[in-house]
Design a protein that fits this description.
mainly alpha; MetI-like fold; elongated
């Protein structure tokens, strides 16, 4: 009976310690966030964009695909000739620009995040295998990486989309397949360093399986680099998606994307500047916010900054 009580008390103590550790870690994260003005701004903007994309059905004042010939090319509401019902004006088909930007955030974030997850999964597997096992496997995998690096991402994406046809799932796969090499190279470099450390050698010396060492010791030590790269890659992928949609090989109508809105407005830059200006601002602000957030994450996850704090 007393042994059970002691065991229960020990478990409670362990739980309290783990809870206290998590609380102190969260406190350190928040302090670092508040110290970084750009990180705070980036976090707020990214959170706002995610909120808008999730609740676009409720936030958009109009149907983004509703055509109204009577209100074609209406300027923003604060300009002469503007309509109060359309805050950012209308496009060449009378569709509300604000509603289309709100709905376009969904596709841009979906493509950006999903393709980065796919690219990260491939890159982590390749990087861990090449870095830990080395030898002929490392040589083969790195030559594959070099071959992918020799082809510009935009060219590979254009060919792939021209063959298989543009769509959101195809776009996610294309961007994931073209961007995994950056993860593979960085994760490989981190793995080469970590596998020579004492705790990995000790685990190997007592007969722990390689797969277990990779899962328990190597992967947790490279995940911080992966998170930072992933955050910055989302920004790059959003720009690439917008570029492909602008060229007509990305997201296709009636699905709304920021790049598609830009493409629709390029013929009206001289007369109806708001068609391209506002979606361009949305892309710029979102990308900058993600970059700011990535810089903050790098500071938080950098062991040297942790030791200073």
């Amino acid at each position: 009976m007393s042994a059970n009580l002691q065991s229960h008390a020990a478990d409670n103590d362990t739980g309290v310690l783990n809870s206290g550790k998590k609380s102190s870690e969260l406190t350190r994260w928040m302090k670092t966030l508040l110290k970084s003005k750009t990180g705070t701004v980036g976090f707020i903007i990214v959170l706002t964009v995610c909120f808008v994309s999730v609740f676009a059905n409720y936030l958009a004042p109009h149907d983004p695909a509703a055509i109204n010939p009577a209100k074609m090319l209406k300027p923003p509401s604060w300009l002469e000739g503007g309509d109060k019902e359309h805050l950012l004006g209308t496009d060449n088909l009378g569709r509300d620009v604000l509603s289309r930007i709100i709905y376009g955030s969904r596709v841009s974030l979906l493509v950006g995040i999903a393709s980065v997850i796919l690219a990260g999964a491939i890159g982590i597997v390749v990087g861990l295998a090449a870095g830990y096992y080395g030898g002929w496997l490392d040589s083969i995998l790195m030559r594959i990486v070099d071959s992918f690096l020799s082809i510009p991402n935009i060219l590979f994406a254009l060919v792939f989309l021209a063959v298989f046809g543009p769509s959101v799932p195809t776009l996610i796969v294309v961007l994931g397949v073209t961007n995994w090499v950056a993860y593979a190279r960085i994760i490989r470099g981190e793995t080469l360093s970590i596998k020579e450390r004492e705790f990995v050698r000790a685990a190997r010396s007592i007969g722990v399986r390689n797969v277990t060492i990779i899962r328990r010791h190597v992967l947790p030590n490279v995940i911080s680099s992966f998170i930072v790269i992933s955050t910055l890659s989302v920004a790059t992928t959003i720009i690439l998606e917008a570029s492909l949609s602008f060229l007509g090989l990305g997201v296709q109508p009636p699905t709304v994307s920021w790049g598609g809105i830009l493409s629709d407005g390029r013929d009206y830059l001289a007369t109806s500047w708001w068609l391209a200006t506002f979606p361009g601002m949305a892309i710029t602000i979102t990308v900058l916010a993600i970059i700011f957030l990535g810089d903050w994450l790098r500071d938080v996850l950098d062991p040297r900054s942790q030791s200073r704090s």
